[in-house]
Here is the input.
Amino acid sequence: MYAIAIHGGAGGLPARGLSAARQQQYREALAAALDEGYGVLEHGGSSLEAVIAAVRVLEDDPLFNSGRGAALTSEGGAELDAAVMDGSTLRAGAVAAVRHVRHPIELARRVMEKSRHVLLVGAGAEEFALEEGFELVPNVYFRTAERQAELDLLRGGRSVSELMPSSQGTVGAVARDAGGNLAAATSTGGMANKRPGRVGDSPIIGAGTYARNGVCAVSATGHGEYFMRLVAAHHVCASVEYRGVSLAEAVRETLHERLRALGGAGGIIAVDADGRISLDFSTEGMFRGARDSSGMRQIAI
Amino acid sequence: MYAIAIHGGAGGLPARGLSAARQQQYREALAAALDEGYGVLEHGGSSLEAVIAAVRVLEDDPLFNSGRGAALTSEGGAELDAAVMDGSTLRAGAVAAVRHVRHPIELARRVMEKSRHVLLVGAGAEEFALEEGFELVPNVYFRTAERQAELDLLRGGRSVSELMPSSQGTVGAVARDAGGNLAAATSTGGMANKRPGRVGDSPIIGAGTYARNGVCAVSATGHGEYFMRLVAAHHVCASVEYRGVSLAEAVRETLHERLRALGGAGGIIAVDADGRISLDFSTEGMFRGARDSSGMRQIAI
Here is the structure.
């Protein structure tokens, strides 16, 4: 049994606010990322390779709030966060507040594999990127006209749900490979109109991203501050490990009880040690996809 | 019952490598911070006020790796991290990679109380500090001759235990006030010779710092990357909440089983819902102190 799930953000009105043509674009983009990651698993690749492959596709796609098309800070720039965790070794790598790295998820992986550290931020992360041979891109590469319009609306005090389906929409993937190894990856531009230097839950190991073989792998999306205060991804894993509840129940309780009690909302994708996938959200919708070796394949908004 | 515990770092040989006079200096410094925090509790102050008061004292003291006297990066600068969490509301604030804020723990508190965010890093955190009226200090304020010598030794490939007692030594405090509220605070200069932009466990909610009323409050010190991969502080709390083990057992298992299995070492201070304190470490020693309203008061290295 091998399995992968992806998300492209949770938020308000993703289906209702989108034209049929636009919905179709999202479905196709999600399918492309899902199948890219699934292909890795199908060819015997690791869950780590699979989640990175899927997230890379979403980082390249300006429809999603990660890499190109990232939400913009209050100063109009893009600041990107990403994390990856290998459940087989509990190794992890993350970057935050990087401005010139095309694929933050690749840099997070490099931090995991080549540095002595887990999390690098800002200019120090980019210095490491250059040492590792990453080609930097100008910040304008990430910025799209739609994200600029979103920021203008937010600055004017307006909600943006009529324009963008997912201003909080992070991307992520979780997978179990045929060897039973679990992995999780998350990448985001963060909250639209955030302060420069704000770091959300995505690159925080335990908050937005976690994986532990034999337990589960988790990637979250939504209002990051609430996920950080709950240590949501680790809370899901600890619930599975220590309370003996199913992954679905652990995800449900985290989102619909703990997170709600704080006033937060969002979505979680997760896969357990047997490859069973949970996709859940407390927002109106979540861009998501799941596929496993039993033949199940779904894309939904 | 009210109680407070503090640490000033865990590492190699803190007692063996120190002269009697130097040990006395450390004991006096720990006592000053402990009593400062305890005084807040004694006068009816909150656990949040108490942990911040204790950490401020340690930040000012160049004996410890936080604020003045912080360990230096590979480029010779000081980059400071801190976090605070209020267990009564699960609110939290943190800063990382700040270079000009005299009391990073105060800025972390301000992030919690005045921003919409939990974690601010780098220049963005300092922009927020200026907006909030913090006076910035030059980076040289934090740097001491001893830390420069430590860095020189590390660059030369030598161990530093003969010189500095606690190159990994972070400071932190946990407390329970008379109202039963729990709080935790941690502040550090991070690992000596770290990469600029490296963020350790201290400012990561769930890794180096966590507090939840009714469960426990935790502050960690040691090799931060391992604490991040374990989500150690939250793991302690989840163990207490879900496995029904005592706080002492949860701390023991985290340090001596989970952390050791990864190859990491460090120390943890924690207080449970009833004000029972745990101080444990897997290094050779830990600068620590504890005091409660039963009359117990201890300082140890």
Q: What stands out?
A: Chain A has a mean pLDDT of 94. The domain at 3-300 of chain A is CATH 3.60.20.30 (Glutamine Phosphoribosylpyrophosphate, subunit 1, domain 1).
